[in-house]
Write a structure and sequence with these properties.
It is built from 16 helices and 20 strands. By secondary structure, the protein is of the alpha/beta class. Helix 1 runs parallel beside helix 8. The N and C termini lie far apart (72 Å). It binds 1,4-dihydronicotinamide adenine dinucleotide and magnesium ion (MG). The site of magnesium ion (MG) has 3 residues, from loops.
Length: 494
C-alpha cells in the first residue's frame, strides 16, 4: 500500500488574472483604476486588481447580452451546456490545490478547509447543475376547449451576480451552476476583499470552452460596480448574497427596472441542545457550527441554547474544546482558524465583544486579538447571555459564541423564533418526536437535527423572513433562473 504524504504547509499560488473579463479578454478598467487585495493573515498587499465601475459594467453587460441573444450559447443544446459545465468542474478539480491556495491567500481561510470543503462543494455544485442542463422542461396543460397548451422554461437573460467574501469560490459555483444550466449569461461581481479565485475560475471557464460573453467578471466595489449592475436596464436579474442592509439598497435601486431578485442574507441561527442529546456530539457540533470559517458563515449557530439541567457541564466541556483550537498561518495544515477577512470585520467583531461585556455577559474564554499581525481573533465564548443583548440579536460574523439557557420546548421555540432572521437552526436530541416537533416549529429555511452545516448541492438553502428571498441549490434553485412561458395553440375541433 502506498500513501501520499501531505505537505505540512502549502505555498501561495502564482496570481494569473487580475483584469476585468469581458467576452474572452481580461482587460484593464476603462478608468485605469486598480485596487489592492490584501492577505488578511499578514496584512500585506497581494496584488492590484482592475477596478471596474459603471463603464466596465456596461461593456460586460453588452457582451453578456450579445452572447445571450445571438451567440452560440443561445442555440446550444442543454446537453452540450452540461458538458461544458462538467469540463469546468474537471478543470477546477485538476487545479484544486491552486484554487484552494488562492482562497487561503485572499480570504485567510485554513488551507484544509479550502481543500476539504470549499473546493469539493463548489465542484460538486457545478456537476450537480450540469446534470440538470438537459432536464429543464415544461408541462402539457389540459385547458378547456380545442387548444394545445404547454409551458416552457426559458432562461431569464443576463444575470447580475453579486457575491460576498466568506466563501468566494463556493458562491461562484452556487451562482453559476443554476444560471448556466438554464442557459443564461452572467456578469458577476466578486467581493472587493476576495476577487482572485473568481477571476481564475473564469479563466478556466474560457479554457473549458464556454463561448465568449457567457461569463463576464467585473471586480470592483459595491456602490460603484455593484450598483451599476443593479441599475443597468439590460440586466434581467440580480442574485445577491451578503448583508441585509445592502439587499435593501439593491431592492430599491432595482425597482426602476423591475428586476428579478434573489437574496441570500444573514442570520442569527439558533442551535438548540436538549438535555437528552448525545452531549459530546452536540459540543462538537456547537464548536463547528460557530467557529467554522472563522465564524464568517451566514448560517453560523451563533445563539447556542442549552437546556438548564446540562448547561454547566456542557459549557465547561465546550470551553475546553474552544481553548484547544489551533490558530495561525492558514497555509499550515494544522491550523483550524485563520484571520478574519479584513480590518473592517475585525473592528466590527471586537466592537461586539466589548458590547457583550458592557451589557453584562460573561466572556469565559477568548475576547482578544490573537498575535500582532493579521486580523486574528481568539475564539470567544460568552455565557449568561440574555435575549435582548446585542450579541444575542445581531449578526457578528466572527468567532464569538453566545450561550443562552432554557427550560423547555415551548420557551426555547418562542425565543429561537424571536428574531428578524430565519436562515438556519439546529436541534440536538435523542427524542424523535421532539426533533420533528422542533423542526416544524422553527421558522428557518434549513433545520439540522443532530448535525450542523451539512450542505449538499441537491438540498435547497435560503432564508425565511429577513434572511432572504428565494432558494439556492437543488431543483428549487433552477426556478430563480427561468421564466415560465405558456404556449397555447388552436387545434381543429375534436
Ligand atoms: P456587503 O453586503 O456590503 O457585500 C456583499 C457584496 O455586495 C460585495 O460584493 C459588495 O461589493 C456588494 N455591495 C455592497 N454594496 C453594494 C451596493 N450598494 N450595490 C450593489 N452591491 C453592493 O457585506 P460586507 O460589507 O462585505 O459585510 C458586512 C456584513 O454583512 C458582515 O459583517 C456580515 O454580517 C454580513 N455578510 C453576510 C454574508 C452572508 O453570507 N449572508 C456574507 C458577507 C457579509
Ligand atoms: Mg458593505
Amino acid at each position: 500500500m502506498s500513501s501520499v504524504v501531505e505537505p505540512r504547509t502549502f505555498a501561495a499560488p502564482k496570481i494569473r488574472q487580475t483584469g476585468i473579463l469581458i467576452g474572452d479578454e481580461f482587460r484593464s478598467s476603462v478608468s485605469g483604476k486598480t485596487f489592492a487585495t490584501v492577505n488578511p493573515a499578514t496584512e500585506e498587499v497581494i496584488c492590484q486588481v482592475a477596478e471596474g465601475d459603471a463603464a466596465d459594467v456596461d461593456l460586460a453587460v453588452r457582451a453578456a447580452r450579445a452572447a445571450f441573444e445571438t451567440g452560440p450559447w443561445s442555440r446550444m443544446d442543454g446537453r452540450d451546456r452540461g458538458r461544458l459545465m462538467n469540463k469546468l468542474a474537471d478543470l477546477a478539480e485538476k487545479h484544486l490545490d491552486e484554487l484552494a491556495a488562492l482562497e487561503t491567500l485572499d480570504n485567510g481561510k485554513p488551507i484544509n478547509d479550502a481543500r476539504a470543503a470549499d473546493l469539493p462543494l463548489a465542484i460538486d455544485c457545478l456537476r450537480y447543475y450540469a446534470g440538470w442542463a438537459d432536464k429543464i422542461k415544461g408541462d402539457t396543460v389540459p385547458i378547456r376547449g380545442d387548444y394545445f397548451c404547454y409551458t416552457r422554461r426559458e432562461p431569464i437573460g443576463v444575470c447580475g451576480q453579486i457575491i460576498p467574501w466568506n466563501f468566494p469560490l463556493l458562491m461562484v459555483a452556487w451562482k453559476w451552476g443554476p444560471a448556466l444550466a438554464t442557459g443564461n449569461t452572467i456578469v458577476i461581481k466578486p467581493a472587493e476583499q476576495t476577487p482572485l479565485s473568481c477571476l481564475r475560475m473564469a479563466e478556466l471557464a474560457l479554457e473549458a470552452g464556454f463561448p465568449p460573453g457567457v461569463i463576464n467578471v467585473v471586480p470592483g466595489f459595491g456602490p460603484t460596480a455593484g450598483a451599476a449592475l443593479v441599475a443597468h436596464p439590460q440586466v434581467d436579474k440580480i442574485a445577491f448574497t451578503g448583508e441585509g442592509t445592502t439587499a435593501k439598497i439593491i431592492m430599491r435601486e432595482a425597482a426602476d427596472t423591475l428586476k428579478r431578485l434573489t437574496f441570500e442574507l444573514g442570520g442569527k441561527s439558533p442551535n438548540i441542545v436538549f438535555a437528552d442529546a448525545d452531549l459530546d456530539a452536540a459540543i462538537a457540533g456547537a464548536e463547528f457550527g460557530l467557529f467554522f470559517n472563522q465564524g464568517q458563515c451566514c448560517c453560523a449557530g451563533s445563539r447556542l441554547f442549552v437546556e438548564e439541567s446540562v448547561h454547566d457541564e456542557f459549557v465547561e466541556k465546550l470551553i475546553r474544546r474552544t481553548r484547544q483550537r489551533v490558530l495561525g498561518n492558514p497555509f499550515d495544515t494544522e491550523t483550524q482558524q485563520g484571520p478574519q477577512v479584513d480590518q473592517a470585520q475585525f473592528d466590527k467583531i471586537m466592537g461586539y465583544i466589548d458590547r457583550g461585556q458592557a451589557q453584562g455577559a460573561n466572556c469565559v474564554t477568548g475576547g482578544q486579538r490573537f498575535g500582532n499581525r493579521g486580523y486574528f481573533i481568539e475564539p470567544t465564548v460568552f455565557t449568561n447571555v440574555h435575549d435582548q443583548m446585542d450579541i444575542a440579536r445581531e449578526e457578528i460574523f466572527g468567532p464569538v459564541l453566545s450561550i443562552l439557557k432554557f427550560k423547555d420546548v415551548a420557551e426555547v421555540t418562542q425565543r429561537a423564533n424571536n428574531t428578524c432572521y430565519g436562515l438556519a437552526a439546529a436541534v440536538w436530541t435523542r427524542d424523535v418526536q421532539k426533533a420533528h416537533q422542533m423542526a416544524h416549529a422553527l421558522r428557518a429555511g434549513t433545520v439540522w437535527v443532530n448535525c450542523y452545516d451539512v450542505f449538499d448541492a441537491a438540498a435547497p438553502f435560503g432564508g425565511f423572513k429577513m434572511s432572504g428571498i428565494g432558494r439556492e441549490l437543488g431543483e428549487a434553485g433552477l426556478a430563480n433562473y427561468t421564466e415560465l412561458k405558456t404556449v397555447t395553440m388552436a387545434m381543429p375541433p375534436r
